Amino acid sequence: MENVKIKDKTFKVYLNNSQIQTEIQRLAGEINARCAGKKVTFLPVLSGSFLFFADLIKHIKVEHEIYFVKYKSYSGTDSTGIVDAMLPPPASIKGTTAIIVEDIVDTGTTLKTIVPDVQKSGPDAVKICSLLLKPDKYDFAFSVDFTGFEIENDFVVGYGLDYDEAGRNLRHIYKLTNS
User: Fold this and answer.
1) Distances from the Cα of 176 to the Cαs of 5, 22, 75, 118, in angstroms?
2) Is omega for the bond preceding 47 within 30 degrees of 0, making it cis?
3) What does the domain layout of the chain look like in residue ranges?
4) How confident is the model at residue 79 (pLDDT cuts 50, 70, 90)?
5) N or C: which end of the chain has fewer CB within 10 A?
6) 105 near 114, Cβ under 8 Å?
7) How much is the pTM?
8) What would the CATH number be for the domain defined by 4-74+81-176?
9) What are the catalytic residues?
10) What torsion, rounded to 10 degrees, do the Cα atoms 25, 37, 150, 70 define?
């Protein structure tokens, strides 16, 4: 596993695909156990969570529906602080446990918009599932219920995560080595 160059930046392997798949199976097992007997509405956040969610859903056993949502707050390697709701949640998901599926949660800026939008749809509960969490940056009262990996404050790419829309197709997750 070598370094990769994306546009003007170099990245090195941070989490390999085998580690990612093992963690996804663990997360699915946790969701299946904690949501047993409940109807779940998964709300994967596009575009970053698509690979993670595609692998996660293969292991989900609970009754569920899927509605993709799209919010954007990044430009380059930095959050803009402005969240655009490009594809909001459905008008009604009453009687379900809504699980927002994120690729990465860092400051929580995007979740501060998504969670109230989802709550307006009337679910019984709102949960958050994220493959990656940056606990030192997270600044939101709503807890992340299902977390894969807690990571340092590094910029990461691959496995759905992007740098200016590039690198999503990489099998592993890479971290920035230079700026």
Assistant:
1) 10, 23, 16, 33
2) yes
3) 4-74+81-176
4) low
5) C
6) no
7) 0.92
8) 3.40.50.2020
9) 106
10) 100
